[in-house]
Specification:
Elements: H1 29-43, H2 48-57, E1 58-63, H3 74-82, E2 88-91, H4 98-111, E3 117-121, H5 126-132
Parallel strand pairs: 1-2, 1-3
Length: 151
């Protein structure tokens, strides 16, 4: 098989797990995803300057919807934190099939030349959520405008 410029290739994979049971170590899904994305960029083995070029080339950001934490615009928050402005920012419905579906769709868009560099991410913080849920004191980056969304 020959590789062309439109052949989808996974160039970096990242994973971040917070196993701490201490409330002061609680991490929300946004931070888990950002840490995993940083890990994926490091996994590419690119130099710092090439990593910056890679980030600048990201034109697609797909995020699996979280069950544990309310966000009004998680893809927008991730893009802002990464300093990127992808043309596509997508937040999925809930469902265990979403990671595989996003992967397939991103590969299809790349093979058709519709996307050059895609980030697919997701994350849950059930342990952290359990610490904060009883008092509804989620340490969110961006609180929803409607506090009822926290319940």
């Amino acid at each position: 098989m020959s590789v062309t410029t439109s052949t989808p290739v996974v160039i970096g994979v990242g994973d971040f797990i917070n196993r701490s049971k201490k409330v002061e170590d609680a991490v929300e899904p946004l931070q888990l995803m950002l840490s995993a994305i940083d890990g994926a960029v490091k996994d590419t083995g690119l130099s710092e300057s090439s990593s910056s070029l890679l980030r600048a080339a990201v034109d697609s950001l797909d995020v699996v919807r979280t069950w544990t934490w309310p966000y009004p615009d998680l893809p927008g928050l991730i893009a802002e934190r990464l300093g990127i402005d992808p043309a596509r920012k997508h937040y999925t419905d809930h469902g265990g099939n979403q990671p595989g579906l996003l992967f397939d769709e991103a590969a299809r868009r790349i093979s058709k030349g519709e996307t050059k560099v895609a980030i697919l991410t997701g994350g849950e913080a059930l342990a952290s959520c359990m610490f904060f849920a009883p008092v509804q004191a989620y340490p969110l980056i961006a609180r929803p405008s409607n506090p009822q969304q926290l319940t």
